[in-house]
Design brief:
alpha/beta; three-stranded parallel β-sheet; 6 helices
Length: 138
């Protein structure tokens, strides 16, 4: 768990988004407790409004269900959900976005491939944090 680090430029991107008033949350198929520990370890906790993940007893990491929990925490319902964007590196992230009717941004520097993200219908693609910043903040 501790043998990881944020991708290059991500901490600065998150800070820029936060400073621009964007509400940020983490939705992960990993244990929520681990995600929270990692976020604190990298001193990013002040940037996120919530963290949603699975419990240790959960047998499934259904991204749609996790996103629904995130929407409830963010108090997003109906048309307000259209303001949400799922950012992820795997088909599960893109599928979760599609299943909940929101847009997605597939990142090409993670574990998935361009082909995987495109074939699952990612709305946008970005190869770096700098490209994400350009797409999201102009």
């Amino acid at each position: 768990m501790w043998e990881c680090a944020p991708y290059e430029g991500i901490s600065e991107l998150l800070q820029s988004l936060h400073d621009a008033g964007v509400h940020l949350g983490v939705v992960t198929g990993k244990p929520e407790e681990f995600a929270e520990k990692l976020i604190r370890h990298f001193h990013l906790e002040h940037l996120f409004d919530f963290v949603v993940g699975i419990g240790f007893a959960d047998k499934s990491a259904d991204k749609k269900a996790l996103l629904e929990r995130a929407f409830a925490l963010a108090e997003l319902s109906g048309d307000a959900r259209r303001s949400a964007l799922m950012v992820g590196d795997r088909c599960f992230d893109i599928d979760g976005a599609n299943d909940t009717g929101i847009d997605s941004l597939g990142v090409l520097y993670g574990f998935g491939s361009r082909e995987e993200l495109e074939s699952h219908g990612a709305t946008l693609l970005a190869a770096s944090a700098r490209e994400m910043q350009s797409l999201l903040l102009g």
